[in-house]
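[Automated response] Your request has been received and processed.

Submitted sequence:
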Amino acid sequence: MSGKQYFCDELNNVLSCFHDRIMSCCSGQIGPVYYEAYRGQKINWDEFKAVKQKAFDMLTEENIENSPCKGCYFLRERKPTDVISPTFKTINISHWTQCNCGCIYCARMLDSKGKITYKSQKSEYYDMVPLLKQLYKQKLLDKENLYACIQGGDISVLKEFEPMVKEFLKNGVHRFYILSNNIVYQPIIKKLIDKDMVDYTTSLDCGTPELYYKLKRVDKFKESVENLKKYASGKNPDCIAVKYIVIEHINDNIEEATKFINLMESIGIRKIEFMIDNKYVMFTNLEEKPLPKHYGGLYLHFKQLCKEKGIKMQVWDKAEYIIKKYALNL
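Generated structure:
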């Protein structure tokens, strides 16, 4: 095959189960789709498995213009050592939209229309456990290296959250990533933290009850902080990361950021994720609508204060790239 060839580790290793489709990744692109509008139907597994190969066949200089992956941040030039894997090493699970919180920045709001759910229930779209059983049966999940990412919606209002975790543990999983608003304490998460089997992430975004309510639309700041204390009091507090998502005109200032970092230090949190509003990471043309310049100074303040307090600061690589390019001009 002549001409340049491209490769994507996300396409190769990641399967994402959303409420409206099963697809290759969650990069913000509508990449290769394994099953559109999945609602628990019987899957033709030969067709399912062929999707990845067809997608890679399009990643050539000759075909890239017609590929749904064109322009994706994760694309790179293919190396001689790159091999298309028959299995997935990461599975993203977001097959439900119900949540007991109403974060003003959440992409889920588009699908839930802002509705806040208070009782645990089934997904409105499909059950995940039967699909997991089939994926394991088809040998599509890498048991030895599988990273199971459960996001949502929120786990506290999904009835099959614990059955999903148990299904992974029964069949083979290396580690979990679990995202929650942390309003409801989950004993099974505490067990996974104590076994060092999970990267548990929650998004607090502030250091005061007043700002929490403004961002989340529920009065649950106290509960969320108390649950963090419980999780962090165990054997492996480094399994926990707390997000600070910067929202324009609300918490995008040094005063609020400092209150947040001080609170995290006081309750024993050792890891913080600095994040910017998803609209800037995935949905906005930054050449037309620039990232606010003061985000650069806020990012540097966060970095310095975390360093002084011995807290690890994490930044998603794409978000850091955007901040450095558009706010710091690096």
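Summary generated for your ticket: The mean pLDDT is 92. Residues 294-309 form the longest helix (16 residues).
If you did not submit this request, please reply to this message.
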